TrEMBL record:
Keyword ATP-binding: yes
Keyword 4Fe-4S listed: no
Molecular function via GO: ATP binding; kinase activity
Main function: Catalyzes the ATP-dependent phosphorylation of 3-oxo-tetronate to 3-oxo-tetronate 4-phosphate.
Signal peptide: none
UniProt domain Four-carbon acid sugar kinase N-terminal: residue ranges: 3-227
Enzyme class per UniProt: transferase
Gene3D superfamilies: Four-carbon acid sugar kinase, nucleotide binding domain, Putative sugar-binding, N-terminal domain
Annotated keywords: ATP-binding, Carbohydrate metabolism, Kinase, Nucleotide-binding, Transferase
Enzyme Commission numbers on file: 2.7.1.217
Name used for this protein in its record: 3-oxo-tetronate kinase
Amino acid sequence: MLLGVIADDFTGATDIAGFLQGNGLRTLQLNGVPAADLGVDADAVVISLKSRSCPPEEAVADSLAALDWLRARDCAQFFFKYCSTFDSTAKGNIGPVTDALLDALDEDFTVICPVLPVNGRTIYNGYLFVNDVPLNESGMRNHPVTPMTDANIMRVMEAQSRGRAGNVPSRIMDQGVEAVRDALNALRAQGMRYAVLDALNDRHLEVMGAAVQGMKLVTGGSGLADGMARHWTTGRIDEAGPVRGPTVVISGSCSQMTNAQVAAYRAEAPAIAVDVDRAITGDAVAHADELAQWVLSHQGGLAPLVYATMPPDALKAVQARHGAARASEAIEHLFALLARRLEAGGIVRFIVAGGETSGSVTQALGIPGFAIGPQIAPGVPWVRAVGKPLALALKSGNFGGERFFFDAQSVTEGSK
Ligand SMILES: Nc1ncnc2c1ncn2[C@@H]1O[C@H](COP(=O)(O)OP(=O)(O)O)[C@@H](O)[C@H]1O
Ligand SMILES: O=C(O)[C@@H](O)C(=O)COP(=O)(O)O
């Protein structure tokens, strides 16, 4: 196998899997670390974990279990995939997991590269930008679970890890592969453990993709994987075909773009808001039943939307009433209950917004893995469940255009 990927959430996993498959790698996504005896015939395997915001020890243990599984399958190289907005806290989990993977592989140096220029995630002199705005001034400053308040990735990484971080600036990326390799060697010789790679455009991705060939562990966003995969493959391969039938849209993301997508969709399609206070204070089962009935009675036209999505002020009020962790957990639990009821009621396509939310829904549906289908937007492919006739679109909070929920349905419209 060319590449084994350990992804810290489910939307992140489908994001990178979509880019690998799009570059011609036969890619399989596995939801959690699978049973040891699963046979795999693929160029790349992506293991989705739900390790972005759990306690660091749990994230490390899950990531090492995924690494062991991949190592037993002779992966040539390993990729730790985290969010292109570097979602983490001062406790982790990007730093502790990176350190644990380096130790397990007996390595002392890696790259840190949360970029995806096609979606506006770029790094300049080690500072991360989201659509040309520094990370700490972007919508990520209001994230419910991992608010990001510093754009300097060297500083953020050093605060949660064991080593020092240097930068390979964009002017070196402009000079090409040899210059980047020399810069990486120089940083390592200076005692740096991490090299934050600048990337402003696709050309930089290709250069860094070549420069990291042979590095046992790399870490970053799907832009780095796109750059790496461009050097391995020659053409496109078949994507998983469409699934037809009853559809639901579930939105548990409170990101800026998801708020805009929910507003655009609600204006034209049937939509119902989760009663968040009720979900949190104990009546989740009855509420999930009602929401499921509502979804099943609104089939026929545009798929019905169930959303907990809120703008930052309303979200802060909910978190002040109930606590942020309790609120997130309860809402994820509600969506898990809802997903199971909807599957039982005949829903076969789930369009889900939000990484944690997607993890919760996918786990509730007991889906062991995915084959990768056509891209709806950069970083968001349709995926088809292994072993069940279900299709899902797992959308990162900030990905897609304002009409994403419409777009997801029209990608497969011809086959409805
Ligand atoms: N109205 C709300 N009040 C409090 N928490 C919420 C609300 N809506 C969603 N959440 C929680 O916020 C988190 C959003 O994270 P996630 O699903 O990963 O979205 P994103 O991809 O935008 O990061 C989830 O844990 C979700 O349960
Ligand atoms: O790299 C990215 O931006 C995405 O792949 C990602 O990790 C998505 O996470 P969420 O925004 O939490 O959905």
